[in-house]
Amino acid sequence: MPQGLDTHKRSIVKSISWRILAGIITACVALYMTGKLDFAIKIGLADTITKLLIYYLHERVWDRINFGRVKAPDYEV
Q1: pLDDT of residue 20
Q2: CA-angle at 55, arms to 54 and 57, nearest 5°
Q3: What pLDDT does 56 receive?
Q4: Greatest alpha-carbon span in the chain
Q5: Cα 65 to chain center, whole Å?
Q6: Burial grade of 55 (CB within 10 A; 0-12, 13-18, 19 or more)
Q7: Which long-range contacts (CB under 8 A, 24 or more apart) does 31-40 make?
Q8: Whole-angstrom Cα distance, residue 47 to residue 27?
Q9: Torsion sign (Cα): 35, 17, 1, 65
Q10: Where are the alpha helices (DSSP H) in the chain?
Q11: Angle CA(14)–CA(57)–CA(12) in degrees, nearest 5?
Q12: Per-residue pLDDT of the chain (77 residues; tens, 9 = 90+)
């Protein structure tokens, strides 16, 4: 059952942790494909910074959408 909306701080931490992992994956794929470490790092950083902001904004928009959420009861025993 949902506990409520995520705080901005929680959304930021989730965004950062996901983007670090995804950026590492992107850099590894770029390194594998090009064999150039400096190029792979630049791609990984650019990908991480750009998508970090987009993911955060995406999370905040979805926090405002009730689709698929179960309404919490008015009271609990």
Answers
A1: 87
A2: 65
A3: 83
A4: 61
A5: 17
A6: middle
A7: none
A8: 9
A9: negative
A10: 8-34, 37-63
A11: 25
A12: 456 677 888 888 887 888 889 889 999 999 999 999 999 999 999 988 898 888 889 888 988 998 888 887 888 77
Query: pTM, whole model, 2 decimals?
Result: 0.61
Residue carrying the six token digits 């059952």? 1
Query: What tokens appear for 21 in the block?
Result: 């992992």
Boundaries of every domain in the chain: 8-63
49/52 Cα distance (integer angstroms): 5
Q: Find where tokens 């190029």 sit.
A: 39
Side chain identity, residue 7: T
Angle (CA) 14 27 41, round 5°: 105
Map tokens 């009271």 to a residue. 75
Report the C-alpha gap between 23 and 46 in whole angstroms: 9
Closest to 23 (Cα-Cα) out of 52, 59, 66, 2: 52
